[in-house]
């Protein structure tokens, strides 16, 4: 009942404090105990699982963290905001461990599930950055980056998307093309770069 829920909440906050202090093993222990006491509150359980996954990640227990994110995504009762958070955290984890293909898979899943989401332009930018800067696929990255300025012309990510594209062109030895993009950034987006 209520005592168990209160205990779970207290353990959750202890875990958060330990995590902020950089004591990830203690944080993980607190989150595991909190899960055991979480009762029937779906949102409480999800919050604990997300914190547990981040603690595992900090302890470099990457496969276990990924398993938690995937279990959340497979949960039939997962709501949109939980799916969004899980996908973005999992994608960031894959970027961190330089598994760019899996990161792109997470971002693509996000874009398929949440077509008109406010974060779409930022996710397209992240996909474009990975594709251009990490995988060195300029033309494929351009397709993603161009969607940022074509589909979301008022997005705050447009100048950065153009910059990533120009830098990618320059790194690929296509300096003449890059020389056309850089001035466009300064002309149309003064004060952004």
Task: Provide key terms for this protein.
193 residues, mainly alpha, 10 helices, 0% strand, elongated
Give a written overview of the molecule:
The chain has helices at residues 2-20, 24-36, 42-58, 62-74, 80-96, 100-113, 120-134, 138-151, 158-171, 175-188. It is mainly alpha-helical and 193 residues long.
Question: Number of helical runs?
Answer: 10
Major sheet attributes: none
Query: What's the Cα radius of gyration?
Result: 20 Å
Please identify the structural class as seen in this structure: mainly alpha
Low-confidence stretches: none
Helix share, percent: over 70%
Order of helices and strands: HHHHHHHHHH
**Silhouette:** elongated
How far apart are the first and last residues' alpha carbons, in Å? 54 Å
- What is the percentage of strand-forming residues? under 5%
**Average of pLDDT:** 90
Q: Please tally the β strands and state the result.
A: 0
């Amino acid at each position: 009942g209520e005592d168990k829920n209160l205990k779970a909440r207290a353990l959750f906050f202890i875990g958060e404090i330990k995590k902020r202090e950089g004591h990830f093993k203690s944080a993980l222990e607190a989150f595991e105990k909190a899960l055991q006491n979480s009762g029937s509150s779906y949102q409480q359980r999800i919050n604990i699982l997300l914190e547990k996954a981040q603690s595992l990640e900090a302890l470099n227990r990457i496969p276990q963290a990924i398993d938690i994110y995937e279990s959340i995504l497979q949960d039939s009762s997962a709501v949109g905001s939980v799916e969004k958070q899980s996908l973005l955290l999992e994608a960031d984890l894959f970027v961190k461990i330089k598994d760019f293909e899996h990161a792109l898979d997470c971002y693509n899943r996000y874009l398929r599930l949440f077509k008109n989401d406010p974060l779409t332009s930022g996710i397209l930018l992240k996909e474009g950055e990975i594709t251009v800067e990490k995988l060195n696929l300029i033309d494929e990255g351009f397709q993603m980056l161009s969607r940022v300025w074509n589909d979301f012309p008022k997005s705050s990510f447009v100048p950065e998307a153009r910059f990533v594209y120009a830098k990618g062109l320059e790194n690929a030895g296509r300096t003449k093309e890059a020389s056309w993009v850089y001035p466009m950034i300064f002309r149309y987006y003064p004060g952004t770069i």
